[in-house]
């Protein structure tokens, strides 16, 4: 999954990137409200963690612009403003969840995972498609109840396909959500990851619809 962390405090921003990356997200960061608005308006993310106290354009204004423009990405708001009135204002502006500072990174990660699951229409931490199951809290994979060892990249790919298991996911979309700007976003790199997973999972788990993309078999 692809996440944007918007925070102007360098220490908190680095901690967010570390925690979300460890939780299976491909993380991008920015520290300015105008840049945040542009990125959220032009890129596709599975989650945004948004601080309200930003330079250039405050987080609440950024959020309002996204929602006015039809952007439906799940947004977890961070703020040092602790009054209930400000929390209500954030929710009414379109925030999906609200976490006051200071916070525990473990709670943020748990909330982030829950937001992504709910956005995909799946509430439970354990996700299943046919014989395949993923525990999104422990970041583990099992096939017919038996654990399967996967790399971080392989897990991210399976988690994204699982989140969108009701449709065929195009290769370009998978590349966008799996790889960073500094990584090689080439179709043959994606095919190599798919091939490794098929060797581990066997046939009939990851299906290809030629000319369209990939999906998990439900049967």
TrEMBL record:
GO terms for biological process: regulation of DNA-templated transcription. The keyword Cell membrane does not apply. Gene3D superfamilies: 3.40.50.2300, 6.10.250.690, Winged helix-like DNA-binding domain superfamily/Winged helix DNA-binding domain (1.10.10.10). SUPFAM superfamilies: CheY-like. Residues 124-218 form the OmpR/PhoB-type domain. This is DNA-binding response OmpR family regulator. Coiled coil: none annotated. The modification 4-aspartylphosphate is found at residue 51. GO terms for cellular component: cytosol; protein-DNA complex. Pfam families: Response_reg (PF00072), Trans_reg_C (PF00486). Keywords: DNA-binding, Phosphoprotein, Transcription, Transcription regulation, Two-component regulatory system. GO terms for molecular function: phosphorelay response regulator activity; transcription cis-regulatory region binding. It comes from Rhodovulum adriaticum (Rhodopseudomonas adriatica). Residues 2-116 form the Response regulatory domain. InterPro entries: CheY-like_superfamily, OmpR/PhoB-type_DNA-bd, Sig_transdc_resp-reg_receiver, WalR-like, WH-like_DNA-bd_sf. SMART domains: REC, Trans_reg_C. PANTHER family: REGULATOR OF RPOS, RESPONSE REGULATOR PROTEIN CARR. Residues 124-218 bind DNA.
